[in-house]
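Structure first, sequence second, as always.
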């Protein structure tokens, strides 16, 4: 991974994903749009795995404001992939998610950074990330237990 010149991030969350036949383009590679779908699956699983009692039932929610994705190397249909996800920064009303899709051999296939803004679902205006979310995310990301 160092040869890709990517920053070192301790990714605690890993989600295996399955490539389907229709995910492959005419060149025999995973279609670029599928990487984004896999990243979305990683975001959802990340939040769900430690926010099960509150996720989806609060009057606020994080929404994607910006996503930047670098496609580093092609993926073939027979490769096994995992989506790695970490929240690397929490500001007042936004969070930075860093994600990578890697093969079972550790090769980085794509790297993405997503800015999510916490919004009030009634007004659709940005609101402060709650203390509960902030604590759970910080506790999870700083945990050394597997």
């Amino acid at each position: 991974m160092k040869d890709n010149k990517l920053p070192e991030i301790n990714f605690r969350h890993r989600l295996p994903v399955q490539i389907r036949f229709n995910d492959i383009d005419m060149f025999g590679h995973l279609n670029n749009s599928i990487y984004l779908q896999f990243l979305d699956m990683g975001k959802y699983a990340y939040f769900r795995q430690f926010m099960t009692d509150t996720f989806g039932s609060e009057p606020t929610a994080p929404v994607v404001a910006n996503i930047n994705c670098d496609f580093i190397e092609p993926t073939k249909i027979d490769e096994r992939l995992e989506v790695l996800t970490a929240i690397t920064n929490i500001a007042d009303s936004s969070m930075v998610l860093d994600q990578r899709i890697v093969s079972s051999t550790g090769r980085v296939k794509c790297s993405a950074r997503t800015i999510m803004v916490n919004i009030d679902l009634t007004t659709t205006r940005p609101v402060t990330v709650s203390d509960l979310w902030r604590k759970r995310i910080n506790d999870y990301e700083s945990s050394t237990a597997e």
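Margin note: Residues 71 and 110 are 4 Å apart (CA to CA).
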